[in-house]
Amino acid sequence: MIKFHSDIDVTVDVSRIREIINDIQSDPMGGWYDLPETYDHAEFDKIQATAKQIQNNSKYLVCIGIGGSYLGHRALIDALQPKSPTKILYAGNSLSTRELNCLLDTLGDSDFSINVISKSGTTTEPAVAFRLLKAKLQEKYGNKASERIFATTDARKGALYEEAVAEGYARFVVPDNIGGRYSVLTAAGLLPLAVAGVNIDQLMSGAATERAANLDNSESAAIRYATMRADLLKKNYDVEILASFEPCMQYFEEWCKQLFGESEGKDKQGIFPTSVIYTTDLHSLGQYLQDGRRNIFETMLRFSEEGAPAVTVPQLAKDLDGLKYLEGKTLDFLNTKALEATVAAHRDGGIPVSEITIPTLDEKSLGALVYFFELSCALSAKLSGVNPFDQPGVEAYKRNMFHLLGKPGF
Ligand code: PA5
């Protein structure tokens, strides 16, 4: 379903890949690998029913979370732009006063609910946002407020879990064996996605198809992409630019940056993941890419079908703008030519460029793409000798901040 093309020779070490896949399946944090087949169907149905309930009584659902408890669903909602009576708003992904005031202005007197998402249940940014928004909910709905709070957290522990049990909030689970940045296909992503109007059945089915495409196939797109990344890193290409010609993919790229950055940047190693949206960024970073340092490789995300109503350059009586040669051509044709021109220019400039092709911008394809990146990321981290499932570096700023804020014990 997902295709990978590269001009770079990629030789897969089949036995090493098999070993890594076995490792992933037996890793205590490898639960995402089989998730498209093994997910909890009873919870999935509860998510669908809860989504309908929220759509019936809320103009807004405020999703509170950060990192893996935020970026995955935001990425898919932005990319798919689904329709729903309930609009998703986001909180708890920064400590900005302006952002929070802006959110409160948008909420105004409207009916709203909260989905607070934190696997650990102890992350400061979402915990503070939850406290603030819970107060607003209580002010508006009194003792009925708790009926509008949906908590997605660990199955058994953490401050959020304990509060949810004590206050009787509806609870959803991020399974023990799935870490934050691999959790988009769990309730952490699925509840906001279902409320936003995304067809989560199709999403899971796309992920299952991509999982199946990797079983017993050592030449799959994900395996070749992961192998290429690890090979390029050995040759000192330590910056990857993920590029899309669709602005709606900006947050998908943000999710990829988190997935790869937190999974691979360890032990003073790793590829620095960054992203661009073209053609916009050809007019800003284009010069550096064409002529700057040669430690960068580029991965283009492209769709084989446009999937949106065509827009055609109109015919005009006069050719004052000199665009007669484009009359009758679609915008998608222009975008495709821009992509081909960019690939050729960057290859000429000495950048290794590869392409990931996705059928179209729909739930099934994006479900497959999520799984593709999760698998590629875990494989390429392991090929480079790092653990893709921990994030010891993230703890450093947290400890400092707790100390500066006077948290007991820090
Ligand atoms: O991938 C990760 O583990 C992190 O990005 C977490 O998702 C992030 O730190 C939020 O953690 P939590 O869901 O525990 O609040």
Describe the protein's architecture and organization.
Helices cover 47% and strands 14% of the residues. By secondary structure, it is α/β, with parallel strands linked by helices. The protein has two domains: 3-26 and 204-387, 3-Layer(aba) Sandwich (Rossmann fold); 35-198, Glucose-6-phosphate isomerase like protein, domain 1 (Rossmann fold). The strands form two sheets. It has a five-stranded mixed β-sheet, sandwiched between helices. A five-stranded parallel β-sheet has the order 3-2-4-5-6, with helices on both faces. Helix 1 (14-26) crosses helix 14, helix 3 (41-57) runs parallel beside helix 8 (187-195) and helix 11 packs parallel to helix 14 (363-383). The radius of gyration is 22 Å and the shape is globular. The model has no long low-confidence stretch (mean pLDDT 96). 5-phosphoarabinonic acid is lined by residues 66-69, 118-120, 123, 126, 179-181, 262, 391, 394.
Helix content, binned percent:
40-55%
The small-molecule ligands in this entry are:
5-phosphoarabinonic acid
The biggest sheet amounts to: 5 strands, mixed
Poorly predicted spans: none
CATH superfamily of the largest domain: Glucose-6-phosphate isomerase like protein, domain 1
Distance between the termini: 49 Å
Q: Please report the total strand number as a whole number.
A: 10
Query: H/E element string?
Result: EHHHEHEHEHEHEHHHEHEHEHEHH
CATH topology of the largest domain: Rossmann fold
* Tally of individual domains: 2
Give the strand order, joined by hyphens, for the main sheet: 1-10-9-7-8
Which percent range describes the beta-strand content? 5-15%
Structural class: alpha/beta
Shape: globular
Radius of gyration, Cα only, in angstroms? 22 Å
In DSSP terms, counting alpha (H) and pi (I) runs of 4 or more, how many helices?
A: 15
CATH architecture of the largest domain: 3-Layer(aba) Sandwich
Q: Give the overall pLDDT as a whole number.
A: 96
